[in-house]
Specification:
alpha/beta
Length: 325
């Protein structure tokens, strides 16, 4: 993939044109989701703010629908400087920084406000900084949301109902371990592949926030049941190639960081505003929504995941202490 942006390229363009103002620099930003998804909302807001605050010096071009690759592929490309930016679900980041896996532990947060308190503070920034060794710059945490199980087979009211279902999970060992603890036949795969697999019936379900279930009309992919188990809060990280970030002057870096945080908070509010209507729309398509499953049976079943990842014990203790304040 041809890299579109560096300050050197901008300077060369300026010299060639003899223009009196700095030439526009284009930044590619990729997502794997469609234009109805909340990631698009965050991307468009970020693009608007950056262009406005740099007086048009930087233009963000958004490439949705996996045009630039799957999430893991885009992270690989960013880490080598071949792709500028992406908005990426938290799941694949554990493959670039082991510490990031703590974010995917089941039932870590009770509500959105708890998640924001962690992500927008010292712990959140520390985790983003851990990505720099892999050539990635985490700018801000937007929202994917609390994840819920969908399937084509039966209503899921408790942990026993999940046993034996064949579900797609993100390509992340913590998610795989979580669903194996629930006796699910967990199949890690990219989202684009999951859509095809659901359509063909080679998997029976998946797990995602309401926004994804709605924006992808998963009832058209055979998903008859949604269980609001909220087993994990999934963030979405506005991410940049560290090489590209370091090529910006300090003032522009601050603009990118501030704009990413503002776009993230804007998108979070949008998700909250849309969720009730989206859930009603899902029901209107004949999907059975289990709104009050036996969460305690699920919590008990996944406790073994905490025992299996002692490397996260310190972070978990710090998170719990912060939330207890």
């Amino acid at each position: 993939m041809k890299k579109l942006t560096t300050l050197a390229a901008a300077a060369l363009a300026l010299a060639m044109t003899g223009a009196g103002a700095l030439a526009e620099t284009t930044i590619q930003l990729g997502t794997t989701v469609n234009e109805q998804d909340s990631f698009q909302v965050a991307a468009e807001k970020f693009a608007e703010l950056v262009e406005e605050r740099t007086n048009g010096e930087y233009k963000i071009e958004i490439y949705p629908n996996g045009t630039l690759g799957g999430e893991s592929d885009m992270l690989d490309s960013m880490s080598t400087g071949m792709l500028d930016m992406g908005i990426i679900t938290s799941g694949p980041f554990v493959n670039f920084s082991e510490a990031m896996g703590v974010l995917d532990m089941p039932y870590l947060f009770a509500n959105n406000e708890e998640a924001y308190k962690v992500f927008d503070g010292e712990i959140g920034r520390e985790l983003l900084d851990s990505l720099e060794d892999a050539g990635l710059k985490g700018l801000a945490y937007a929202e994917r949301g609390f994840r819920n199980v969908t399937n084509s087979v039966r209503p899921v009211n408790n942990a026993d109902d999940l046993a034996g279902l064949k579900l797609r999970v993100m390509e992340n060992e913590v998610y795989t371990a979580t669903f194996k603890a629930l006796k699910v036949n967990a199949v890690p795969m990219a989202w684009a592949e999951a859509l095809t697999a659901m359509q063909q019936g080679t998997i029976e379900g998946e797990e995602n926030p309401i926004n994804v279930i709605y924006s992808y009309s998963l009832w058209d992919y055979g998903q008859k049941y949604v269980t609001l188990d909220r087993h994990s809060y999934s963030t979405a990280i506005i991410t940049m190639s560290l090489d590209v970030f370091n090529s910006l002057d300090e003032a522009t870096q601050e603009i990118f960081l501030a704009s990413a945080q503002e776009a993230a908070e804007y998108e979070r509010a949008w998700v909250a505003e849309q969720e009730a209507d989206q859930l009603a729309a899902i029901k209107s398509h004949g999907v059975e929504v289990i709104e009050n499953p036996d969460v305690e049976s699920l919590r008990a079943a996944v406790q073994s995941v905490y025992d299996a990842y002692p490397q996260y014990a310190d972070y978990i203790a710090r998170i719990q202490a912060l939330l207890a304040e």
